[in-house]
Amino acid sequence: MSTATTPTLDKEPAADAQGPAPDPDRRSAEPAQDGLAARLAANPKWLVIGFAVLVVLVSAVVTGDGSWPGGWTADIRTPLEDLDNWLVDNRDSHWLFLYFLLHISNAAEGGVDAIVGLFDSLGWVGVTVIGTLIAWAAGGADRSRRAVRTGATALAVFAVCGILDMWAPTMETLALMVVAVILAGLLGLLLGLASGLSDRFEKLLRPVFDTMQVMPAFAYLLPLLLIFGVGVPSALIATVIYAAPPMARLTSLGLRGADPVALEAARSLGASPWQRLYTAKLPLARKQMMLGLNQTIMMCLSMVVLASLIGGGGLGDEIYQALGKLDIGTALTAGVAVVLVAVLLDRTTSAAGERLDASQTATEPAGMAKVRAAVWGGIVVLLAVFAAVGSALWESEWPEGWTVSWGQPINDAVNWFTDHLGSGIPLVGGTVTWAEGFTEFILNPLRSGLLATPWWALMLLVAVVGWFVGTWRASLTGCVGLALIGAMGLWDRSMDTLSQVLGALVLTVIVGLIVGIVSARVERAERVLRPVLDTMQTMPQFVYLIPVIALVGLSRTAGIIAAVIYAAPAVIRITTQALRGVDPAAMEASKSLGATGKQQLFQVQLPLARKALLVGVNQGVVLVLSMVVIAGLIGGGALGYDVVQGLSKGNLAQGLPSGIAIVCLGIMLDRISQPAVRSRKGS
Amino acid sequence: MNSKRIRNTAIAGVGVLGALALTAGCGAADTQSSGTDKVVLAEPSWVGASANAAVVSKLMADEMDVKVDVQQMDEPVAFDALDSGKADAILEDWHGVPKKQKKYVEDKKTVVSGGDLGVVGHIGWFVPKYYADKHPDVTDYKNLNKYYKDFRTSESGDLGHFMGAAPSYSQHDKGLIKNFGLKFKHVPSGTEAAQLKEMQRLYKAKKPFLAYWWEPQWMNNDIEMVEVKLPKYTPGCEIPEEKAKCGYETNQLEKFLNKDFSENGGAAAEFLKNFKWSTEDQNEVAQMIAGDGMKPEKAAEKWIKENKSTWEKWIPEDA
Hints:
Chain A has helices at 36-42, 44-63, 77-90, 95-138, 145-163, 167-197, 199-214, 217-228, 232-256, 260-268, 273-301, 304-309, 315-324, 328-361, 368-393, 407-422, 431-452, 455-469, 472-487, 491-521, 523-538, 541-552, 556-580, 584-592, 597-608, 610-625, 628-632, 638-648, 652-672, 679-682. Chain A is mainly α. The two termini of chain A are 36 Å apart. Residues 1-33 and 677-683 of chain A have low confidence and may be disordered. Chain B is of the alpha/beta class. Helix content of chain B is 42%, strand content 19%. Chain B contains 13 helices and nine strands. Chain B has helices at 2-24, 47-64, 75-84, 98-107, 129-134, 144-147, 173-179, 192-204, 259-264, 266-274, 279-291, 296-306, 308-312, and strands at 38-43, 67-72, 89-93, 111-128, 160-163, 184-187, 210-215, 225-228, 250-258. In chain B, strand 1, helix 2 (47-64) and strand 2 (67-72) form a beta-alpha-beta unit. Chain B is globular and about 60 Å long. Residues 21-26 of chain B have low confidence and may be disordered. Classes of the chains: A mainly alpha, B alpha/beta. Chains A and B meet through helix 4, helix 6, helix 7, helix 13 and helix 16 of A and helix 1, helix 3 and helix 8 of B.
């Protein structure tokens, strides 16, 4: 995608964090140049953290069992089971459903059905022609490079989806996505307006958005499933909830960041508040809003497979079923179609955004606006004509003779790879051997260590780290999160999950930093990496989950690898950007002092880019966490598996607490790895 | 300044409320969401179910001109969908959700049985044949502790590794391992696909493994598994799981219909009630789909062409 940012990278970077912020992750902490003692003496914070670590280690060895005291747990199963039963009994009779929730559900279903029906009656020619025209018009409806390129991209996407024999599911997914993007965009816009214009709403909504960011979508699929039942509405609503926050956040940011001079000018010209909003604030915030929309689209697309788990249909279904037959080729093909739909929506909206920007600054030939209006009018007329007669003129689906099947060759290739990399390599063993080593020597000790650590020692560590990295609020939030986990009786399972998350995080940071450094220093590496990273982020994780099993076995390692693949691109990008952003003067100065490339990297670039790198680590935390549930699908066990089981058995009492526990872990890790963002408020 | 803030808050509030009100509309909503023009089948995520659905929808479309919509959903969710009318029929139920079945069939009476599918399902504990040949007495659960060391992996640590089922499948293995005092650790598979891939990998490497496994299963054509005997199943012996001390029921897989559809569904409902084929029939189609990589529609078409005598009697006379 053309976005340089990641789907969830809409947190403001902690540019004005105060004071040196220690890395939350001790293992990957510091370039070890000065001795430990010197560092401790120079910075008492390290002393305190060191003390907390010591307490953890000693108490773990002494007590050897860290379980949350049994008496301090609350019974949440019974009330949840009651709620579950109540929902099932009243779903079609209670007023709350009849007069409110079912309207939403029916409207959602109706909207998607209408668009699917429209695509059907347009036929494949109609969809392709109109889709291409819309993209071209969004790009400017002229012969400029942008307009032509956008139109060509759309044409290519439709053609490739057809040739790959994915036409019908692609249309279903596209219909769901169009409705989801429109709804998520509107909802985000409304919330963004509210929090951009009113401080009170801002205060109210900010923690909500913050929580949404670390909340894995699986966690709220289950309640939605119980309320709306299986099918398109649940899928649609889950997607909208998941994807709306970036739009809201960036709209609010744009409104608040509007140039005060321009606003003052508008005010002095006697503009009313509404006029100021329309003529000054909104146009000034447009760039941010387009970025928000862009991210919203990416996040919608990342829900395609999840949505199919609760009846969303489309490409996600295709992937899920293909994997049930171990048919990686077909799953990959459907995955490619998902990526292509993402490309289509992303390029079209970003071209529209660019055009709006350009038409604002550059002077256009007169009459272009009229031409554009005429083009849009033409599209509408054509749409009506095709919808009326399209089904009579051509098939509704891509002609079968024009398809190419490349499922089998892919299957053969994947099998060859997995057979030969699994264990056959002399000397270094194979991926299976490595994975077993990783489990045995890193994951297992980490898990036993966490389980042996008494809960109070762990809380102390979280509190201390949170205090120093962020604020007292961060440390309090972290502790409350842990306490909640304990109270729900999920301490042991959560520690299991935490050990996996930490393992994945370390790998993500290592891979991210190394690749990021390389691509910051070697121009060509970045160019090669870019499309790879884009694909890694939009390709549904399910597609590569099963081949990963063939490489490393059904184990926690498989889940961790999937998490690293998903989270590393963000860290790589942020690292590259951060290193590139280092003041050229400092680089030049160090060079003239005779520093070698290595010295430059370790003594100038990395220290100067540290704050941005920490943002990268924080992003890594958030993204790794969002994969916990996915990892549960391929042997991750623990909380992720519980959520999946709760979801597939429709068991609220099992799924919801586990989901909440994941959220608690997420908030805890997010807070203690987020360098004092809130300090901005004080200044 | 303050008044401006209040006004802004008010404007924003009205906006949000307005949006909510718009969606709420007025009047009671329609609770049955699926129309009557097409039949909605719930299809679980395994291949045998694809075979059922493919053959049924092909026959209904070609012979009876009934439109069929197949929606993928797992067993528990499918029961909810039958209750709400979002789906009309489940073709293959493994009795994996007794609670929901009781609630909807006996208490709420919104779901009715559609008779047996004809396919016999069997769940159990299995080891690969190459291992059972070497250690013939492993096929009794009482001897598993003798061999647990062979089954150790990095996931199970000092215990043997028991490959558990996907989350939505009926299972009480954890209880069994505990109650029999077996030195095994239950390691669940997150999805059927994950379990299949792992078994394929281990089988290729000729490694020993103990797994929750079942028939009919298309992969049984590629790998040979031997069952480990568990105590015989008696009704209710696995409930609650903490006290389970028996194996699994050999299941006559059952069909379930939404009650409304069953009564007013006409020929379509009649056809679904008549639909009954053997394990071999289903395996034949499943193998075409999963083993030979055919599309479900093509596989169904082939089977329909060759087995007219079987399916002829499913079509109701008035259709």
